[in-house]
Amino acid sequence: MRRPPSFSGIRCCACALALLLHGPVANAVDAMPQTVVLDQRWAFRLAPDAAAARAHPAAAAWQPAQVPGSVQSSLLALGQLPDPDWRDNEAKVQWAGLADW
Q: What is the pTM of this model?
């Protein structure tokens, strides 16, 4: 024996159908697709109250970020970090991973 649907279930289905027919989904079919570029105009800086701000004042200013990427890759591209793969430079770039950005 089947149980009749509850009133709240019917109301929920009716609301979903109303949104589908009159909401932004119905209008999206008529709209032209838009491209949103996410890899441009990003910036980063070292948090002003970070302990590393005194030791690295250039990193405390807003700088362009590479997206996708990381703070370390952006600093490396800007010439503010030495190549971490060269000799003992890895120890010299540890501050960037430990700082607040």
A: 0.61
